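Hi R.,

Here's the chain you asked about this morning:
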Amino acid sequence: MDHIRNYLFVFAGNFTAAYIIFPERTIAKSMMFAALMLLLSMGMDFMKSKNQHSLEQQ
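And the predicted structure, written out as tokens:
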């Protein structure tokens, strides 16, 4: 559940930042930017959790 909340914050923050940054102030560009950044952050989290190595033997 923590991951979902963090992803919602990331999406909302990126959407707000893109809406302020782009001069056209269109929702479509802001949604596209926020969605792509969300996919990037989710992919990085997935790769990080997949590559967790431990030196301890089980």
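The longest helix spans residues 27-50.

Let me know if you need anything else.
M.
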